[in-house]
Backbone:
């Protein structure tokens, strides 16, 4: 059996009692932190579980899961630890589908996720539109789809959550400042007046831990130091008066 276990948003102490009990009965424990960085102590988590944890890289899970985690889950109980909630990343949905094709049973133990934790900003969750991932541009590849999603959401008065690029193997984690500069670059190219220096934004770092939340015009947020990852960025849509009042707490 394969168990997907969420570790929550901060450190090893955020794992649920159910998750910890499940870890202790598993023969093997794997973890992946390339979809979202883990801010806890892996050794401390091993001590809690009472066994070694094997850290997987992206290619281990996306290209070779049949050779490691799925092969072992046929014979014994196996756990995959994921920072945040395990069913947020499409990588894990893909692994569920692969497991079912191989006849491997699976279970999910959920945990806190950025999708619920952004409620700490005071923005109402049901007023968020499509989420977009903002990635680092590379040679001949500068995706502008987040800009298009932002335009659609703004036209409907909805808030936009932008998840920022994580390149764990390179130890590169996109910051709020980099995200704003990327959006300004796309605006200069597209010139559709979707994003600009005076647009209200909410920069967020380390939700669930020593969080920093700052609301203000994009240009003002560029001057802020948001500290260590993970970061995300929200561009609010049409605000309810209670949302407006809540955001004053972070200005």
Residues:
């Amino acid at each position: 059996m394969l168990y997907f276990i969420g570790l929550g948003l901060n450190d090893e102490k955020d794992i649920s009692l159910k998750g910890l009990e499940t870890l202790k009965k598993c023969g093997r424990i794997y973890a992946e932190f390339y979809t979202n960085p883990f801010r806890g102590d892996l050794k401390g988590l091993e001590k809690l579980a009472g066994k070694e944890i094997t850290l997987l890289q992206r290619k281990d899970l996306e290209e070779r899961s049949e050779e490691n985690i799925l092969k072992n889950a046929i014979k014994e109980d196996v756990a995959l630890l994921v920072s945040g909630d395990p069913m947020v990343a499409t990588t894990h949905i893909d692994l569920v589908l692969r497991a079912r094709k191989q006849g491997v049973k699976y279970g999910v133990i959920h945990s806190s996720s950025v999708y619920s934790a952004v409620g700490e900003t005071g923005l109402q969750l049901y007023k968020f539109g499509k989420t977009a991932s903002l990635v680092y541009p590379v040679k001949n590849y500068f995706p502008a789809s987040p800009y298009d999603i932002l335009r659609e959401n703004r036209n409907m008065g909805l808030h936009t959550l932008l998840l920022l690029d994580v390149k764990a193997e390179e130890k590169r984690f996109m910051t709020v400042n980099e995200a704003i500069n990327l959006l300004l670059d796309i605006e200069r190219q597209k010139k559709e007046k979707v994003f600009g220096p005076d647009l209200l934004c909410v920069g967020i770092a380390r939700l669930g831990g020593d969080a920093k939340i700052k609301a203000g015009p994009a240009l003002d947020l560029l001057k802020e130091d948001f500290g260590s990852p993970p970061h995300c960025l929200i561009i609010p849509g049409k605000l309810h008066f209670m949302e407006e009042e809540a955001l004053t707490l972070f200005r």
Summary: The longest strand covers residues 200-205. The longest helix spans residues 176-190. The chain has ten helices and twelve strands.
